[in-house]
């Protein structure tokens, strides 16, 4: 679980490892709302807090700004919430877009955050071995049930180092000629076969770029809408990993899907940011 801080002036929300790690976020963000509070005169830097009567003057510009950020942090420190999960925002029933390179450490931090709190994990991934390794390395315990769906083969007997109980992971190898409709149906059947009442379901789609480039923007959007509607029945969090900077068509598709997405997150240095 993480610490969460929501700005009182705009829609910005940050999740960080703990309260201490949030210091790097709050002061800079609040300063950006009141740039006029810092002024230069003669050789000195002045700051004048808009929230209280405190004002300071110093010769050291960087030192003055850092001191002001630390001061601003204290105004909001008691609004930082502990033990928060990103999916609390929509009670584990919603669609999240993760705006980051799909195979980056930043994206992995979100994968771990979601899958580590689920009983049933389904991952549609281009690289099943990388996915299994990630969960094995990062999670304290495997979810009750993990189903990895990929067009790439993955044989467990070659990977004896993975520490998982027999039967708790299944790898479903897809025929690469199948389209998004068949993929959606496969995922739906996997949910039917594996989802027990009360299970928290975490569904990751890390092949959105492949679907957009192999088909078209409309088909890719239809796929996400269909999965999202499927999860309305069972409950669960759908995570779409989509790096708009890497592919303008992915960016276009995500714009179309705006109404479908409950939360867009940018992972940065172990923190998760929802911009205003
Ligand atoms: Zn703000
Ligand atoms: Zn103040």
From TrEMBL:
Q: What is this protein called?
A: C2H2-type domain-containing protein
* Domain of life according to the entry: Archaea
């Amino acid at each position: 679980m993480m610490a969460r801080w929501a700005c009182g002036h705009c829609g910005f929300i940050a999740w960080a490892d703990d309260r201490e790690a949030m210091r790097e976020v709050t002061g800079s963000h609040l300063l950006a709302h009141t740039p006029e509070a810092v002024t230069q005169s003669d050789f000195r830097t002045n700051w004048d807090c808009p929230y209280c009567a405190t004002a300071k003057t110093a010769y050291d510009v960087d030192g003055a700004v850092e001191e002001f950020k630390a001061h601003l942090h204290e105004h909001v420190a008691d609004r930082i919430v502990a033990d928060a999960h990103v999916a609390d925002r929509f009670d584990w029933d919603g669609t999240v877009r993760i705006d980051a390179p799909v195979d980056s450490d930043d994206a992995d931090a979100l994968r771990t955050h979601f899958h580590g709190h689920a009983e049933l994990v389904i991952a549609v991934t281009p690289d099943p071995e990388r996915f299994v390794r990630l969960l094995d390395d990062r999670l304290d315990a495997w979810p009750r049930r993990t189903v990895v769906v990929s067009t790439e083969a993955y044989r467990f007997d070659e990977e004896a180092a993975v520490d998982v109980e027999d039967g708790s992971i299944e790898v479903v190898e897809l025929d690469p000629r199948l389209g998004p409709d068949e993929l959606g149906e496969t995922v739906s059947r996997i949910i039917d076969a594996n989802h027990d009442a009360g299970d928290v379901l975490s569904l990751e789609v890390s092949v959105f770029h492949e679907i957009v480039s192999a088909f078209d923007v409309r088909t890719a959007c239809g796929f996400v809408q269909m999965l999202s509607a499927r999860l309305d029945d069972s409950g669960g969090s759908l995570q779409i990993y989509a790096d708009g900077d890497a592919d303008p068509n992915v960016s276009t598709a995500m714009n179309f899907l705006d109404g479908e997405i409950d939360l867009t997150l940018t992972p940065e240095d172990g923190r998760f940011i929802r911009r205003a």
